[in-house]
Amino acid sequence: MIEIFSNEFIPILDSSIKREDYMLIDLSTTNPDLNEIDITNVNVCQSYIDTILIKNNATVAYGGYLEKRNLYYNNPNFSTMDKNCRNIHLGVDFWTKENTKVLVPLDGEVHSYKNNAVKGDYGPTIILKHNVKGQLLYSLYGHLSIESLHNIYVGKVFNKGSVLATLGTPKENIGYAPHLHFQLIKDVKEYSGDYPGVCAYRDLEYYANNCPNPEKLLHIKGL
Asked: Is residue 126 within 8 Å of residue 149, measured between CB atoms?
């Protein structure tokens, strides 16, 4: 499926943010910089991201596909004391300022939406449905502003490049530094306005297949 995408850069955030303004960030368990800080604390997380952005003269820090993280360690919805701990990230996060515009990367329509207002969840979320050369594909946008769910309805059409939403505050996105969680999904099954964005290692093979790497679509760094 993934080969049907082009090789062009597709902006996912405000069009004034250029390709060179994006930089990769490592929030994995193997990043030694995170050993000395509590990345689960929203203020600490924000400070770390701000430091990285300033150091690299960047606007957006992005990454995290299939990244094993400690970011969810203190959240009972994710963490357990056994091998079923959900700590592998299935989408790409884009860390930047709240209220930043979120753009639609492909023509599509609203499949579903919901405010997943539980600690550690997405907060306001929109899922779009796309028909790409006869194949269905879904895209999920999490951690949006509450305002993003106003005037939206199932079936509403969005063209590529149009503004879908804006990023929420930590209060709106349920305790995270402002960012977009963007995830591609082949088969959304019975989910509505929600879909797992983090999985346990035992389920990784299934989710890695069902949730392709968004970088293959967006080509932020031309990978």
From this structure: yes
